[in-house]
Amino acid sequence: MQTKIKPCLWFNGNAEEAANFYAGLLPDSRIDGVHRAPSDYPSGKAGDVLTVEFTLAGQPFVGLNGGPYFQFNEAVSFQVFTDGQAENDRLTDALSAVPEAEQCGWVKDRFGLSWQIVPRVLIEHMSDPDPAKAKRVMDAMMEMKRIDIAAIQRAYQGESVDA
């Protein structure tokens, strides 16, 4: 199937490094192609890696070595849904390069890209039709840097989050 939309991520000369790093974190991820510049361009020379096509968890992306002109910010982030604390912790540990930026499961990686590491159970509990349960879960999450699934479960049940 040919992709209709492919997000393009702007890097400062390290698109290939970033793509390799990201592809090593998630299943169904790979490098699909590395393309070199056919001539000089504002931030590189002929023969330099210009773009890297890669797939993360089945989603195609392209990384562009566009130079230092633009940087990532929190206006765009990628959500990764996890199925347990071990997966949640593994991804948070791998992706978080700026510990002071951690909040409510959000992390910033070493390339400046923001990620949201989201346990599926968190979304389920925050979507509960019982507004008191959903509120307790939301309130508990808002106090966390990294998501603690056991604490989320306790909040959902109406127990102390600090137990």
Overall mean confidence score, pLDDT: 96
Provide the gyration radius in Å: 19 Å
CATH architecture of the largest domain: Roll
CATH topology of the largest domain: 2,3-Dihydroxybiphenyl 1,2-Dioxygenase, domain 1
* Total strand segments: 7
Structural overview:
The chain has a four-stranded mixed sheet, covered by helices on one side. A hairpin with a 5-residue loop joins β6 (106-108) and β7 (114-119). The chain folds into two domains: 8-65, Roll (2,3-Dihydroxybiphenyl 1,2-Dioxygenase, domain 1); 77-157, 2,3-Dihydroxybiphenyl 1,2-Dioxygenase, domain 1 (Roll). α4 (131-142) packs antiparallel against α5 (149-157). By secondary structure, it is of the alpha/beta class. It is elongated, with a radius of gyration of 19 Å. The protein is built from five helices and seven strands. The chain has helices at 15-23, 85-95, 120-126, 131-142, 149-157; strands spanning 8-11, 30-36, 49-56, 59-65, 77-82, 106-108, 114-119.
Concise account of the structure shown:
The chain has helices at residues 15-23, 85-95, 120-126, 131-142, 149-157, and strands at residues 8-11, 30-36, 49-56, 59-65, 77-82, 106-108, 114-119.
